[in-house]
Structures are given as structure tokens and as C-alpha cells.
Design brief:
The chain is α+β, with helices and mostly antiparallel strands. Among the domains are: about 100 residues, Phosphorylase Kinase, domain 1 (2-Layer Sandwich); about 180 residues, Orthogonal Bundle (Transferase(Phosphotransferase), domain 1), CATH 1.10.510. About 40% of the residues lie in helices and about 10% in strands. A 5-stranded antiparallel beta sheet has the order 1-2-3-5-4, with helices on one face. It has a 3-stranded antiparallel beta sheet with strand order 6-8-9. Strands 7-10 form a two-stranded antiparallel sheet. α20 runs parallel beside α22. The longest helix is centred in the last third of the chain and has 26 residues. The protein starts with a helix and ends in a 92-residue tail after the last helix.
Length: about 800
């Protein structure tokens, strides 16, 4: 501590190398004999400003005044006074003569004259900025005069500097002295270094050295005169050359002119107190009011805050951009981090942050956004996800994988469908930045669950997202996940846009499938959709069939010419028109004008759509709706709403949670089975039956399965390891002894034998009547013998 004080006031005699700051390039101007340099800290490289003052010996008058300024600046703290960091005094020998230099380190600032030239403001924006700056300097001077009973002595353009956030701050405290009229000795020490003040800046009593008049004057008299000099220099655009130039008021705003004249009154006692100056209407403008509101934000209630932040983005367009952006972003980031601002502040911050340079955005805005992902405020989470396209690309892969994704992942299982959908949409930007461990071990499990979500729009968007992020999966995961996700779930969904998305996803990812998968698993599932009740699904199905048949034909031609190695699985490039999935992700699911096109059924007389989600916006650009109770005289009936995604659907233990520690080797798409959550329409049931029965059935079965349709449930055989369809093939239906089926006879000419209605094998005698109190017998499978005991019952 003693060493530090010695460095501050007495000089340590050490070299410049002991200064913990690097001195950079000098600025063009500074107050008095000081030199102003740019600098950086040797510890962390943070920017600073370094002021230096040199003299021939320790008793030099400039050095004595400089020591006074350093001491005063270190002791006086105010938001509008320059912040002191460090100082030292170094003695050296220059060309055989001793030299003493004082170094003072402060926060990074720029001379006001340089800042004005850099901004180049004109008209109203210039006046608003000057009003804000003068407002700050007036508060600093008022603090010194009225609260501290100190006199600055030389308020002028050179004694004002500007921070990185465009705040004006007062410095140059070399002349600063106490002012106490009740103390006889105070007058002698009051302006000990008044000789440092330029003659053009001296008031009349100071120029005459009338200490008696100065003693009787109020403490603000000398500095009020200095405020008048500062106002004249600001609006005239040049430094004051002589006192007579203060009479030129052409450039002074009319609203400020009366107070300007009172500041320069010839009678010290009649000069305007600087605390009263800020009450002038010149200081009541949008810029001053906006920044003042942000400074006292913590004192405002929630309604005032929300109203302010909703208006702020549009308001900033009318204000000086260079000023308000830096100030507003600083206040908003602080308010969001400490919880004094709500979700509208986040929207305003992102909108204004988009006008910053990439470097400024990365330094000032991005760290706050990353911290906000840990917030429990649902409105904040929604705001972050809705605008993730504005900042997602700026996030590094490490930050996304370690800090952002763990918090976002909670939204996949949120009770709000709106938040689940926004979380799903955000993965389009964040998924490329995830590690393979996180991608396969966590994200795919969540997507597997969302593909059976109760909201049809979410199921559709999940399929779209899988097609988009397929390129980021490793080869083994792609082979295990994609076909199962697209064919078993998407193509069999009761929501037509979901089936259409499944077809398009298969086309867009066609380069990842070999010819065997195309021929045995993809084409059979797509072909049956060419008779889909929905016209859009049928159209996409025909396009997909053409694409995959073309790929099969190319494979055939290449094998015939021996260009492909025998036995090597061949990945064929997809057709360029279907290579980009993102393009159709936003438009292919747009609702059509006809209500019948929105339902999973074609040929319906009327339909009514009931919203099932509060989400007003969706990736698919359609409302989250499901068709309900459509009246129709045709064979197609509306399916009921999907059941809860937690029901058992044969896709593994998705309902039991996403415990990554117990199931880190599974992703939800292993050993897939057909979905049986809802009862399909007759037309859709035929298509799904054909999907489950790609292999022709015995002839006898064609004639004997009619009575089994309502009761029997297909089950998977346990011995299908060698079957190309594996776990997604449907087993033969259960039979009764009365059916007497022959399994060794097949009909190769009738591929629809599995779903055709058979003729009855026995004839049933008509019933003579029905008893009043008798209960009808439960229907049985196959032909049954009827034992009629009376004419009144079965």
C-alpha cells in the first residue's frame, strides 16, 4: 500500500516497464499539457486510456498541478466523471537532464472533439446528442459545486471526454479546489493553479483576480461561466479563441439561448446554477428521455417496462444510431441478465443487435443470449427460440453442445405444443453444431418421440427435420433410422401432410439408400400411396416412384455394363430437383383453398377443422389441426384424433422417458413395428394392409379372411431375421379351425389376395324370430352350427 501511494504522489523512480499497461498511439488533442494515449492492460488486453504529463524537475508547477488532478480524480466518484484506474510517477534522464513523468490510467475514452468529428451528426440528431451530453456534464458540475463544494475551474470542450458507450465525462481536475466562503483561508487556496486556465475561458472576476468577489460568489459561479463556454464551442464547432466570441449566439438553439445568457451573466451571483440548467426544454427530447428511462429501469413496474421495450425498436430508428444502439444494448443486456426486464426486452435487443457489426454483436449481445437459455421464464425461452435464426449462426459448436442444447432439450417434452414445435424448429440451425454423441444419444430419441406426438403438425415437422439433418448423421445411424422413420411412421400417418412429408424426405435423402433398400423397402411402401385418398399425397407418390424407378434402371444399366463392382452396395445420387429439403419444408404443407384437401380423405362432402394447438405459426405454414367427424356417403370415413404419444405403439420404450444413461445405445428407431394407435378409414386400411403384406398370400386365405377382419390383430413373427422386411412385415392373420385354410397353395396372379373378402364356407339358415328377453350371441369367427331350440331366440 505504501509503495502504491508513493507511486501516486511522490514517484517511485522505477522504469516504464513496471507500468502494468501498454502505451499505444496518442490522440490528436488533450487538455492543458497532458498527452492522451490509447493503451491496453498487460493482464487481459482490455483497452484503457493513459494520460502523461512531463516536467524538468519534481518541483515543476505543471507537475504539482498534475499531482493535484490525479489525487482529486482518484477520490471523486460519479457516473459522469472519468473513472480512475491507476497512476505512477517515473523519473528518467533524457539527454543528460533529469525528467519526471506522471502517468494516469483511466477507463478508455476519446476526446470529445474527435468523437464529434467521427459521428458527423447533423440537424435534429446532432442537437439531441448535444443535449444528452450537456445533460451529463451539467450533472457532473452540479455534483461538484452543490454536493462536494468544489470548483472545477476550467469547464470547456477540452475537459470533456467520451466513453465507448458514447457517455460524456468530465476530467482535467488539475485546477480543482475547495470552495467554502465561511472559511477565511479557503480563498487563498481556492484557485491555486488558476494560471493554467486559458484567458478566453476566465470569467471577469477571475480574470481580474478579484478574490473578494469570488469568495462572496456562489460555488457554481465560475463553473457556470465554463458551461457557457462549452455550449458556445459545441454549437459553433470550433474552440473558443477569445472571450468576445461568447457574444456570438447565432448557432445557439433558441430554446437554450435564455439560459445560455444567464450562465454568462456579468454578475456572479446572478449566474444560473447548473442544476437548474437541465430543466430547460432543450433537454426534453426522445434521446434523453429514452436513455433516462433505461437508467432508472429497475424503478419501473412491469407494465411500463413492457410498453417501453415494445416501442424501443421503432423508436431507435428515429434516434442517432451510433449512440442509442450502444447505450440501449448495454442497458438491455444488464436488465435481462439480472431479471429486471421481461421477454419484450429480448425481442428489442435482438432487433437492435442486428444493426451492430458482427464483432460488436459477438462481444456485447451473444454472451447474454447464452446465459438466458438457462432462464426458467417460458416467455424468455419462446423469444429465444422464435428468433434463433438471427443469432444461431454466431454460436460456436462448443457453446451449442455444452451450454445451449442441454437447456433447449427440455422443450421437447414441454406440455405446451407451441414450445415443443419451436424447439423442433430450432434444431434446423443448431443440429449441425452438435457432436455425434449428443446427436445420436439425445436428439434422435427426442425426435423419435415427437414423430408420434399428438399434434399432427409436429409429427409432420419432425419428418421434415429428419430429412434436413440426415447429412449430419453417420452412415450406421442413417441406415438404422431414416427408412424406418420415413416408411413405418411417416408414410402410415393419418395426417395427409405427414405422409407427403415422408415421401419428400425419402426423395431428398435418396442418395443414402442402396438398391436393395430401394427395391425391397422403399418402392413397395410408396407404390401403395399412388391410390391415397389425398390428391397431394398421390401426386408426390407418383413423382417418388418415377425417381426411384429411374435409380433402379440406372443400377440395372451399370450392372449390365460391368461398371459397378459386384456385391457392393451402391449409393445413387438423387435427382437434383429433390436434393434440397429445406425448400419444401416451408411451402409443401400450405393449406389449400378446398377444405377437402386438408383432411386425410378425398371425396368428402364437408369437413370441420378443430384447432388442437395454440401455435399461431408453424414450420409447415398450416394451423395445427386435425379433421373431425366428416359427414360423407362414400366408403371413406374420417379417422379419429391420434392417441397420446405415450401409448404403446411397438417402437420401443419411448414412453418410459429418455434416460440416456440406461439407453445410450438406442435412439428410438430400432426394431420398428407398424403403428396401431388409431383405427384407419376403409380406404386407408386397404393401403396400410398392402404395405404390411408385400408378399402374396395363399389362395385359400383369399376366400376365408372376411370374418377375421374385425377381430384378428396381426402380430410379428419372431423368426424373420432373413426376411428383407424384418420387423415391419405383418404376420399372417390368426385363423380358426373352421376355416380349414390350405397354406401350400398360392395365387401368383392376384397380389391383393391378402385383403380380398372371401366367400362363406357354409350356409346359415334364416332365423325365424328373436326373443324379447334373449341376448344376441357374440359373433364368432368362421362358419358355426346354429342349434335352434325355439322359434324365439338363437
Amino acid at each position: 500500500m505504501f509503495k502504491f501511494l508513493k507511486e501516486v504522489v511522490g514517484g517511485s523512480g522505477t522504469g516504464l516497464k513496471d507500468l502494468p499497461y501498454n502505451i499505444g498511439e496518442p490522440y490528436s488533442s488533450a487538455w492543458g499539457s497532458w498527452l492522451h494515449f490509447r493503451g491496453t492492460s498487460k493482464d487481459d488486453g482490455s483497452p484503457v486510456s493513459i494520460f502523461s504529463l512531463s516536467g524538468s524537475n519534481a518541483q515543476d508547477g505543471h507537475l504539482a498541478a498534475g499531482r493535484n488532478g490525479v489525487k482529486r480524480l482518484r477520490n471523486v466518484r460519479h457516473p459522469n466523471i472519468l473513472s480512475f484506474l491507476h497512476s505512477t510517477e517515473i523519473g528518467t534522464v533524457d539527454a543528460g537532464s533529469p525528467k519526471v513523468t506522471i502517468y494516469m490510467v483511466t477507463e478508455p475514452v476519446v476526446p470529445l472533439l474527435d468523437k464529434i468529428s467521427e459521428l458527423g451528426l447533423e440537424g435534429t440528431q446532432r442537437d439531441e446528442y448535444y443535449a444528452w451530453g450537456l445533460h451529463q456534464i451539467a450533472k457532473a458540475v452540479s455534483f461538484l459545486n452543490n454536493d462536494c463544494k468544489l470548483v472545477h475551474g476550467n469547464v470547456c470542450l477540452a475537459s470533456v471526454v467520451v466513453t465507448q458507450t458514447s457517455d460524456w465525462k468530465l476530467h482535467a481536475f488539475d485546477v480543482l479546489s475547495e470552495c467554502d466562503g465561511s472559511n477565511e483561508t479557503s480563498s487563498g487556496q481556492m484557485l491555486q493553479y488558476a494560471w493554467l486556465v486559458g484567458a478566453q475561458y476566465k470569467s471577469m472576476e477571475l480574470a481580474k483576480s478579484d478574490w473578494a468577489a469570488i469568495k462572496k460568489s456562489p460555488p457554481w459561479a465560475i463553473d457556470s461561466w465554463g458551461m457557457g463556454c462549452l455550449i458556445n464551442e459545441l454549437f459553433s464547432g470550433m474552440k473558443l479563441g477569445k472571450t468576445e466570441e461568447l457574444r456570438n449566439t447565432v448557432s445557439i438553439p433558441k430554446s437554450l439561448l435564455p439560459d445560455y445568457q444567464r450562465l454568462l451573466s456579468s454578475m456572479p451571483s446572478r449566474r444560473l446554477n447548473t442544476s437548474k440548467l437541465i430543466e430547460n426544454e432543450f433537454f426534453q427530447n426522445k434521446l434523453v428521455d429514452t436513455i433516462h428511462f433505461m437508467e432508472i429501469l429497475s424503478l419501473k413496474d412491469s407494465v411500463e417496462k413492457d410498453t417501453f421495450f415494445r416501442k424501443l425498436p421503432n423508436l431507435t430508428e428515429q434516434l442517432p444510431q451510433q449512440i442509442v444502439l450502444k447505450k440501449a444494448c448495454l442497458f438491455e443486456t444488464s436488465a435481462l441478465e439480472f431479471g429486471s426486464a421481461s421477454a419484450p426486452a429480448l425481442t428489442a435487443l435482438l432487433k437492435m443487435g442486428s444493426r451492430l457489426s458482427a464483432e460488436e454483436f459477438h462481444i456485447k449481445v451473444l454472451p447474454t443470449i447464452v446465459k438466458l437459455f438457462a432462464s426458467n421464464d417460458r416467455a424468455i425461452r419462446v423469444g429465444l427460440l422464435q428468433h434463433i435464426d438471427q443469432y444461431g449462426e454466431s454460436l460456436s459448436a462448443q457453446v451449442v453442445d455444452e451450454q445451449v442444447y442441454p437447456h433447449i432439450a427440455t422443450g421437447f417434452s414441454d406440455t405446451s405444443a407451441f414450445l415443443r414445435e419451436l424447439t423442433l424448429k430450432s434444431m434446423l440451425i443448431l443440429a449441425p453444431k452438435l457432436s455425434q454423441r449428443t446427436f445420436s444419444g439425445s436428439l434422435l430419441k427426442h425426435l423419435s418421440r415427437l414423430q408420434v406426438d399428438e399434434e399432427p403438425a409436429i409429427r409432420t415437422n419432425t419428418t421434415i427435420l429428419l430429412g434436413n439433418v440426415a447429412s449430419y448423421l453417420n452412415e450406421g445411424t442413417r441406415r438404422r433410422v431414416l427408412i424406418n422413420a420415413f416408411t413405418v411412421r411417416a408414410l402410415r400417418d393419418t395426417f395427409p401432410p405427414a405422409r407427403g412429408a415422408g415421401i419428400m424426405a425419402l426423395c431428398a435423402t435418396s442418395s443414402y439408400y442402396d438398391i436393395t433398400e430401394i427395391a425391397t423397402r422403399i418402392l413397395p411402401n410408396i407404390v401403395v400411396l399412388t391410390i391415397d385418398p389425398d390428391s397431394d399425397v398421390r401426386s408426390k407418390a407418383f413423382q417418388a416412384v418415377d425417381q426411384f424407378l429411374q435409380m433402379a434402371k440406372q443400377y440395372y444399366e451399370k450392372t449390365n455394363t460391368a461398371e459397378a463392382t459386384e456385391g457392393t452396395a451402391m449409393g445413387i445420387s438423387s435427382i437434383p430437383g429433390n436434393a434440397g429439403l429445406l425448400g419444401w419444408a416451408m411451402s409443401s404443407l400450405t393449406l389449400k383453398s378446398k377444405p377437402s384437401d386438408h383432411a386425410p380423405v378425398a371425396s368428402v362432402s364437408s369437413s370441420a377443422l378443430t384447432p388442437t394447438s395454440s401455435n399461431p405459426s408453424s414450420v409447415v405454414d398450416i394451423p395445427s389441426t386435425v379433421p373431425v367427424r366428416v359427414s360423407s356417403t362414400t366408403d371413406f370415413a374420417e379417422p379419429p384424433a391420434p392417441t397420446s404419444p405415450t401409448s404403446t405403439d411397438g417402437w420401443g420404450e419411448l414412453e418410459n422417458g429418455l434416460d440416456e444413461e440406461r439407453e445410450n445405445d438406442k435412439d428410438g428407431w430400432d426394431d420398428l413395428e407398424p403403428l396401431e394407435e388409431i383405427k384407419p378409414t376403409p380406404a386407408l386400411a386397404n393401403i396400410q394392409a398392402a404395405q404390411r403384406q408385400p408378399i402374396s398370400q395363399p389362395v385359400s386365405q383369399k376366400k376365408q379372411v372376411s370374418n377375421l377382419r374385425s377381430k384378428s390383430t396381426p402380430k410379428l413373427s419372431k423368426d424373420e431375421d432373413d426376411d428383407l422386411w424384418g420387423s415391419i412385415a405383418a404376420a399372417a392373420p390368426k385363423t380358426s379351425k373352421a376355416l380349414n385354410m390350405k397354406s401350400n397353395v398360392t395365387d401368383e396372379d392376384d397380389p391383393w389376395a391378402a385383403i380380398a373378402a372371401p366367400a362363406p364356407t357354409t350356409k346359415v339358415r334364416p332365423l325365424a324370430g328373436r326373443g324379447r328377453g334373449a341376448k344376441p350371441a357374440a359373433p364368432k369367427l368362421g362358419a358355426q352350427r346354429i342349434n335352434r331350440t325355439s322359434s324365439s331366440g338363437l
